[in-house]
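To fix ideas, we now present one chain and its tokenised fold:
***
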Amino acid sequence: YDGGMWWEPMNSPFPYDLYDIYFLNPEFGLAVGAQGKILVSTGIDWTPLSSPVTDALYGVYILTDGSMAWAVGANSTCLKSTNLGINWERVNLNLPTPTRLNCVRFVNANIGYICGERGLILKTINGGTSWDTTSVSGGEDLYQIVFPANDSIGWVCGSREAIYSTILVQGVEEAKPLPSGETKTLSANPNPFRSSTVINFAHPLNSNAMLKIYDCAGGLVKTLNPQPSALRTII
């Protein structure tokens, strides 16, 4: 009640590590951890729930309407519950090898995502009945995935300072000089990037150019004045 300046220890019924926690509202939450342990809180105290697995669980999520809860973990473990964790059933993701899954999030009742080791990302568009797989280019282990703007923009982060986004940047190749005052969108590779990126362009010796870098929210990050005939700028 003091904005997080003082934290009170709560009793846990298990002497095991807990890896994730999620609250549907101030009165109801789930926590998951080692050896498949699942805990529930309906106020202050935590009590154990029955779990069908002994593999460690690293991520838990409850849909906003409370209709379904999900948990993911080691060895491709994926669980779902339709009664707020009282009963759980295993979901087969059809992964070719046992994979550590770290986080599960749903945008709505149909669209959901799971991320895990070696850059793995899974997506469902039918409430978890089936899942499609993809991966990020760097192959880093991924620990968290969020969608702050419904399904339009997603972010995922992981090992080695990895941050990826679903934001797309369209590239434009210019064969002729631009009229004075006209602007064009250029591509950056990689995008998003951690420490540097490359933007390819060129402009004639007798012309001036200004290069502006914006973040995903539309805020101006940096303004550059590249020299004429520049072929690339690295920031």
In short: The longest strand covers residues 18-25.
